[in-house]
Amino acid sequence: MEWLEAAHGYLAENGLDGWLLADFRGHNPLLAQVLGRCPPTTRRTFLFVPPLGPPRLLAHQVDAGNFVDVPFDVQPYTSRADLLEVLSALLDGAARVAMEYSPQGLLPMVSYVDAGTVEMVRELGVEVVSSADLLQFALARWDEGDLQAHLRAARKLGRIAQEAFAYIGHHQPTEFEAAQFILRRFRQEGLSTDSGPVVAANRNSSNPHHEPQPSDVRSIGPGDWVLLDLWAKEEDGPYADITWVGFFGARPPAPQQECFDLVVRARDLAVELLQQAWAAGVRLEGWQVDEAARDYLSASHLGRYFTHRLGHSLGRMTHGFGANLDSYETLDTRPLIQGLAFSVEPGLYLPEFGVRSEVDVYIGEDGPTVTTGIQTEIARIIGR
What we know:
Elements: H1 2-13, E1 19-24, H2 29-35, E2 44-49, E3 56-60, E4 73-77, H3 80-90, E5 96-99, H4 115-123, E6 127-130, H5 132-140, H6 144-171, H7 175-188, E7 198-201, E8 225-232, E9 240-248, H8 254-279, H9 286-298, E10 341-344, E11 347-349, E12 354-356, E13 359-364, E14 367-370, E15 379-381
Helix pairs in contact: 1-5, 6-7, 8-9
């Protein structure tokens, strides 16, 4: 269990007396992450990870049998009074513990424990701090196997995106038909996805998460603007996530070209900042990268159309548990440490059309590296 070794090291180095993962009926996905599965439960469950030694799990007597294959001691409880007594014993000697809690709910990807449970632990005389940095360190970093699986998925996504543009040019399909083509190619390439892809033409590309519907019978044809957002992974690997844009014709209209040039420069500025900071020995936080790209776009007359964060963490879920590039929707102050991967995807969403360019970045031993294809020109969709 590599996560446990990492957690032990983080707890010891940061003066924490433990990591307390609290869950109720699967509400905290971090418990499933560390256990490797999500056993069915109907009552509250707690997993306590000390700085040294094995974790201990506290489960209701009704649910305890679901944890028979867990390699930790499982202690059952019954009544509420029993829960408080056993939890107090579990935390005996602990002064500060980390939980999936974010002050003021600033980081939703960390805010899985309800306020009442945090209050209950505090009333036992234990200080509760956020586990945001801890879970990033223990669960969000990739190893070499993760990186290679991601790179394979990224190469396949790049090919499929180009095939999708060609398919649109040859067949003039609906958005839904083009999305189904992409999903077929995913299956053929051994990739899976939790949702999507986005195939969005013209006004629909103004919606960052547009979902094609079978009821939309309009074909994509000459003169149309097209945005493709593809995300997928190998069975046991982390996601790759890309966005490309194209125009059905020889010369993209000036408004789309202007937006594309701005978005691509903002994307590249963010990557350059990451690489320059690494070379200078400066550790950036997620919000700082977002702010740099956002400041660049805000200096233009189109800056108000950038309406989401710059990027999200990548893992075995499309949006992983590591730092996001975000100073806009939240303020992500987590450091961008070695082993993390995330998207960089600025976008401008005008009423008539939207433009986004998305690449993935991995921070390895030699610093941040773009792991996906980099779009430098608007793709030309050529009809048959």
